[in-house]
Amino acid sequence: MTDPSLSDNARIIREFDDNALLQMLFGPTNAHLERIERQLGVSLSSRGNAVSIEGPAGPVAEAQAVLDDLYQRLRGGQAVGAADIDAALRMAADGGPRADRPIYITRKRHIAARSSVQADYMQAMDSRELVFGLGPAGTGKTYLAVAKAVSMMIKGEVDRIILSRPAVEAGERLGFLPGDMRDKVDPYLRPLYDALHDMLPGDQVAKKLAAGDIEVAPLAFMRGRTLANSFVILDEAQNTTPVQMKMFLTRLGEHSRMVVTGDLSQIDLPTGARSGLKDALDILGTVPSIGVVSFTDKDVVRHGLVAEIVRAYDSYDRRRKSESGGERS
Question: Structure pTM?
Fold first, then answer.
């Protein structure tokens, strides 16, 4: 039976009290309103400081939640663009904006959750010392972890940020590459540098890297260390071996946080080798003090086409595994 709330037409008039924000809320030539109309199948028309929302009752309620979310963002001094509209649409589809939605404050921007799962992930990082973030590319796993690390450093809650990932498809055979050690590893660590530069001015990133306050290094460099008063991130963790993963997890020192991110559908280890991330989840996944947050293609916050690409590849992989009669470790 169809839910009547989704089929009965409704009309809401939403008034806003700060006219100065309305041009940014509506977008150039009402482009933001048109984007909401296309996504939800409703009709939006603006007049003065009011917006009329008309269409099926469910989508009308979602459209109002989206407008309210974006308006509060503007009142908080943050900009609104296409990505923010898509984020508000995702939050509305998940039940509306959350009053407890976390925000990380960095030198260059305020970073808020763009899906309900992102909000769960940020809350897990706020409350737990070790968190696993799992899921496809584009869901913000690593970006949000770096944002949390930078926000904690700015507030003086950690002394160092350490960002790591396995280099050269988990083999770390760096000697075959040209240049010095930094030349060899930088291409594999570039996404981590990009996230840092998105949150801190370039001169601060360079200064903190030179001083050792921020360290970006391949996983092999973690061996034999105890990482205290630090925020430690392991990216692309699906490409670790069980031995490497155990080594990394046991580096956690006093007053430190650790976040491990990875996508178990994108394992680049040699055929037959077991992923250290999968191994760790099997062993530690039920430990109450450890956070495990799983993203899906619905949480992809990059270009909308990325979510479609992720879904298409996942569907193809499922068919291939079904036809072959087995799954990869």
Answer: 0.77
